[in-house]
């Protein structure tokens, strides 16, 4: 029996990326008898891609369509520039989802003299709101199983306050420490291999944080594992948690490939 262990990128492709990306992800999943989604992927999905869709939705609520695009451009020049890609994906999602509307229907809804920026803003805002709420409802139905529950993480539904969306909380709230800490202490040898694999890759901010978090835990296994420390482990968590007989399915093979190989597992791109 073949088994796929999904990472956050595949969940995002299925739920928030229309067209070829979603089709490729679904086709890849169909090759396996069983597909498993760890709750850590749901957590990352909500804190990352889903939150970025909400960011652009809320900009459309608070400003004009043109000003929302200006804010998106400005975002690319800040420390949060990593959000830009997903926010642009939100824009593409809107364009893909609304391009089939007929001009006659738009005129009936907005009037002959409707200003195009307002029409686009309204349509895109509603499209994003629907996409966010639908994606969250569907998160657990994408795979045949949802596995590796996190006792310190609650899957709280996105809220709407007036016209704004809110996805908080996006973090775990452990009573004492991360619920994975005990398993991590029992798998120090695997963590060491994951650190070595991380250190062989070209350094970037994510890999530096991952290496530091792994190193701190390896040096002092009895230290309390905080939510920040667990989050910094990033892709290493998927390699650590994936069953030995499963294939980690990801579009980020550059990171997942070496990590999976380091602990005797395999990763595959759709």
| Helical fraction | 55-70%
Helix segment tally: 13
Strand count: 7
* Unreliable segments of 5+ consecutive residues: none
- How many domains make up the coordinates? 2
Strand order of the largest sheet: 3-2-1-6-7
Q: Mean pLDDT score, rounded?
A: 89
**Overall radius of gyration:** 20 Å
Order of helices and strands: EHHEHHHHHEEEHHHHHEHE
Q: What would you call the shape?
A: globular
Beta percentage is: 5-15%
Largest sheet properties:
5 strands, parallel
- How widely separated are the two ends? 19 Å
Judged by helices, strands and strand pairing, the structural class is alpha/beta
What would you say this structure looks like, in words?
This protein has 270 residues and is of the alpha/beta class. Helices cover 59% and strands 9% of the residues. It has 13 helices and 7 strands. A 5-stranded parallel sheet has the order 3-2-1-6-7. Strand 6 (246-249), helix 13 (253-262) and strand 7 (266-268) form a beta-alpha-beta unit. The protein is globular, with a radius of gyration of 20 Å. The relative contact order is 0.15.
